[in-house]
Design brief:
Elements lengths: L8 H16 L2 H11 L3 H7 L3 H13 L1 H11 L3 H12 L9
Helix pairs in contact: 1-4, 1-6, 4-5, 4-6
Length: 99
């Protein structure tokens, strides 16, 4: 269970790893995730060490609200904490110059 105090980067990474396990525990969810990413299981194992990938796991959950809610309940956290972890791992928004 993730502490409900201030979310640290390490906590966000742990949550994302838990989310990946949550996805992997269900063939349909895992299939949808692999199809969305274009990755195979071996690719996922290697990428799971990367912060950008962990942010993507939480982004994927955010795009499937029912899965995000189910994961949050499973992890014992509020769905808002999942969104907060995603933002923390993603870093600040990128500003672009648009002519």
């Amino acid at each position: 269970m993730i502490n409900n105090a201030t979310l640290r980067s390490e906590d966000a990474e742990i949550m994302a790893i838990q989310a990946l396990g949550f996805l992997a525990a269900d063939a349909e969810r895992l299939g949808r995730f692999l199809a969305a990413t274009g990755m195979g299981p071996g690719d996922v194992r290697a990428a799971a060490r990367e912060k950008w990938f962990l942010a993507g796991v939480l982004e994927h959950l955010a795009q499937h609200e029912s899965d995000m809610i189910a994961f949050a309940e499973n992890a014992g956290v509020a769905p808002e904490r999942v969104a907060q972890a995603r933002r923390l791992l993603s870093g600040p928004p990128v500003e672009r110059d648009i002519p």
